[in-house]
Amino acid sequence: MSALPTVGDPAPAPGAAPVQPAVARPAAPLRTAPAGTRRRRQRRRSWAADALGLLATAVLGFPIYWMVSSAFKDGPELLSYTPHWWPHHPTLENFRRALSREWFWTNVGNSLIVVTATVVISLAVALLAAIAVARFDFRGRRAFVACLLAVQMVPLTALIIPLFLMLDGVGLTDRLPGIVLTYLSFVLPFSVWTLRGFVLAVPVELEEAAMLDGCTRVQAWRHVLFPLVAPGLVATAIFAFIQAWNEYVLAYVLLRSPENQTVTVWLASFTTSRGTEWGPLMAAATLTALPVVVFFVIIQRRVVSGLTAGAVKG
Amino acid sequence: MAPYLLVAPAVAVVLGILGWPLAQLVAISFQRYGLAELIRHRGRWVGLDNYASIVRDPDFWLVALRTTAFTAVTVLATMLIGVGLAFLLRRVRRLVKLLLTVTLVFVWATPVVVGVSMWQWLVDYEFGVVNWVLGRIGVDGFPRHNWFEDPVQGLAVVGAVVVWGAVPFVAITVHAALSQVPEELREAAVIDGASAPQVARLVTLPLIRPVLNLVVVLEIIWNFQVFSQLWIMVGGRPTQDYQLFSVYAYTQSFGISQYGRGAAIAVVMVLALAGLSVVYVRRMLATEATS
Amino acid sequence: MTHRTVRTVRTAAAALALTTVFALAGCGDDDAGSPSAATRPDKLVVWLQPEAEKGWPDLLATVNKAFTSRTGVPVEVQTQQWDSHLAKLDTALTGRTPPDVVELGNTETTKYLAAGAFDDLGPHLGDFENSGTWVQGLKDSCTFDGKVMCVPYYGGSRAVIYNTELFAKAGITTPPTSLDELFADAATLEKTFGSDPAFSAFYLPGKNTKASLAFVIDAGGAIATQDGGTWKGALDSAEARSGLASFKSLVDRFSTADRTGDESKQDATFAKGKIAMMYGLSWEPGAIIDPASGGDPAMKGKIGVFPMPSRTPGKTMPVFLGGSDLAVPANSPNQELARQWIAEYTSTESMTAIAGTGLVPNTTSLLDRTPPEAKPFAEAAQQTFFVPVAPGWATVESKGVLDRLNVSILTGKATIDEATTTASTAITETLNESP
């Protein structure tokens, strides 16, 4: 029995202990019910759930489908009085145009650097702080927590100029470390808050039990808390990744040279006063959204399944 | 000593990066700070003038009211749909779950600029799929429905876009919280004779409550500050009856170059938000105390 | 800590750079045009809007190459976005290293001129070819308090773009020469093709304020008038109202466009072949046949242009002269070089090239260089008008006063009288507020 998080790819990681897929697990498995009845009950309940799940997928996914299918449509097909539900004359021209645009790969590289640095730093720093505020009572804890929240209430656009002045003072404008710093300023408080929730959701009794068994406090965190918080870490990582990956205004204002820009700024260059190059934009957007989805799948499989399953079992 | 060591890096980062800019922001809100002052880096202290001029601006109150209503509706909708999907994710078969999750992540990963443009297409006056479908099922004739003629309806469309973009975060976070609940606790409750709803109410919910509270607070904060979705949806030209707080502040700063007033609006926004979320924050700190 | 390290590194780098420059200067020729070696920057940073990169990349490359070979300073062009460039400009103006040359829309300049953001070009006007014959509408946007603080770059004229095929099918052989004729032709077109619900005889999105203002001016109205130091909104005059009434009637009777929308989609829509006429800029015929922006190459050869006729028969309706200016930020350390670059980029030769793309060059002396297909745009540009040159005008635009006027009139939320009174009051108040 494991508290395996099951967002996304439910396949167990190679080498991990076999894990019972949580897919069709009822909220409260009835121990006493014979296996056969349980199966049938699950199945019946699943049909309605599956239908609802598919409906939700269709509704939420339609704009995405429209984006991806538009990426394969040629000019006149992009807007049509009678909707073309799929590309009638599929073309890769939009992808070619998007990819041949200057700076694409450089800017994707920049985004990856910025995002990776932001995510790694903020998760590491935030996890420590989250444990502190969730597991200790210390003077100034409430103030700290409240301040982290208040910081997120400040509209980012209002901070553009002061942030710029500060970075300009230390020579960090138009440089990636400067962008990483500004991104940390909103990703980190968020991460502390989210992780704090996840740490709190782990019953403290489990750690206490481990300590009774002779673990030190740090060991208890490592072997009991960390595996249980892992799904939260993943969710937070994804969120941090997406926030940083999609940020536009600060990147546009703080980074000037085309070779230093991030991919969202590059994306914006498809829109000019002479109209938007819709086809290439959709192609480019599809391409830039893909890394996030890939990141998600990887992190899901490698980190979560493997790590938690192994740790909890072991 | 231990807790201080643990929070020290976070404090250092946040204070180091935001300390000075925030102090500047507050200072500017008490100054006359236009373009000329901005270039010379020197404002003129005017006390509470900026605040007074905001409060006297009839637009301000309309904007405040509109933003509050917008936030309330979108947060409620996001939470209902998001939490619903989180529970649903635990019930569906593997394939559906994979489809739904990938969709959620894709929605989330789509840059706001593009996601909003997509919606713009969907509700377009002439070419929109939504209007086409409505026309097909006989709701509207060809001179089609204009979603932005009435600001209430237009903001509802913007709200839908916001909810669409926010649901993945809620669904995935809450789902992660749900998977974190140790199965043993639930099983123990079942052995003790609890029914499924009872397990949900007595075991699952209390354990995920910190996460739920957190998500609500964050959604309040983000939806109160909605900017890009609105800005892009109305083509960067929001008329006054479409303005929400963030757009109002942005227009005052970068549109009109009244940076002092823009800063004052930002400060007021923070205060208003703090007021709006105080209930949840209290509740959150309370749960924490008992745990 | 970091602070000091960075400073030290910078100083070291600067010292090194200086040594290198001195070493090079020793063997290079030091002609009058190049700055003294000690002040020569490692590059000149130029912020341009996307038009240059898209419309005349070759000219830009030629100018930069010539500039670099003459001065030894490379030029870095950084393309900006119209949507958010002012936020970036405001921010950059506060920093230690602002761009050396910036481009601004001519409706955006005044508040910057008033704030002293740009270098006064007065003493150097002679350096710019054609500064004596600059197009008035553009020059006005560069002048504040009698001082010239930016250089006109180019303007864009508007005219009616029409579908020649639909015109022929409806039996219309000559373009209308008065507003009445335009209405009559539109009615004929509507009669011929009106059974198709997607057909539009005159496609005019509601937020096209450049069109509605043209009707106001054509009817003898004004946006605002200045008396002494005081502005007074004038959209509530009888003339302005009558102009807006014919604007509304054109939209009501012949437009299927979104009454709350802007012009961003009109070229792609025109490309569907169901629009007989629309009001557009000189590059738009090109966009209609460009598949990347939703256009259709099949429209090639079916696009015609004529100047928007006036309500006075035989005359053309005045056009709003939108355009761009180039300026040197007052705190740029390379003002001399920046001026030289602008001078080369706006030379007679460069302007001839820009006029060749169908735009209005910055000098009246080159107005006849427009290519034949863009002639109607040049013809329309004989009569232009401009927004009030007041620092507060940016506020009027940011508040969307004119957008709101158009939308409320067209959607029937307010009568013309009510809406114009509201707008005019707002304009009066805003323009007279101290900046």
TrEMBL record, chain C:
Pfam family, one: SBP_bac_8
Segment forming the signal sequence: 1-25
UniProtKB keywords: Signal, Transport
Tagged with keyword S-adenosyl-L-methionine: no
Keyword Protein biosynthesis applies: no
Similarity remark: Belongs to the bacterial solute-binding protein 1 family.
Annotated protein name in UniProt: Extracellular solute-binding protein
Protein's organism: Phycicoccus sonneratiae
